[in-house]
Amino acid sequence: MKKVIIATITIILGIYICIIFICADLYIDHNLRKYSVFYAHNMEHKAGTHPELAMALENMDVIYKPNKKNIRYRDDGGFIIYNTFSDSERVIIKYNIAEKKSRYIFYDITDKDYFFDEAFRLEYGYDSSTGLDEIDAKTVDQEVLYKDIYKNFGFIFEANVNRKPRINLQKQFNKKYYKRFN
């Protein structure tokens, strides 16, 4: 009889411990994603990378998305933000989750498409107004390009950069993403 009680208690304790580990793991993952913009902003990163934008686009399903006039969010098959100025003018920023590597795309008003790598560094672009001619990244004034992106989509970054988590997991975030942005 004692062996049955001890075995039952052991099994119940084992189940409780497994549940606690699963919940802790899920909380850590959710925390890292929900506060990713805050963590990315406070992480050391190489010049030319933009971890805040990358994290904001990657985690659109869990971060705070402010309701703004002329802004539309879409999350079917990737995360897309539309900023519409008029019926014919809008800028779009997109994160494609279907690819092996993270890829970000910015479509501007002048029919130019810019493609960024997983650290949000410019890789190349296309000029749709001249028949999809490829744009060399070295010829683009990247400072002006990033200012344009922040001007049109910086509100996402601003809305999330000061949202501090209850439990700060900056060390875990750095461990996970340091190599990507350096």
From TrEMBL:
It comes from the Bacteria. The keyword Transmembrane applies. Keywords: Membrane, Transmembrane, Transmembrane helix. The chain crosses the membrane at residues 6-28. The keyword Transmembrane helix applies. This is Uncharacterized protein. It comes from Mogibacterium pumilum. The lineage of its organism: Bacteria, Bacillati, Bacillota, Clostridia, Peptostreptococcales.
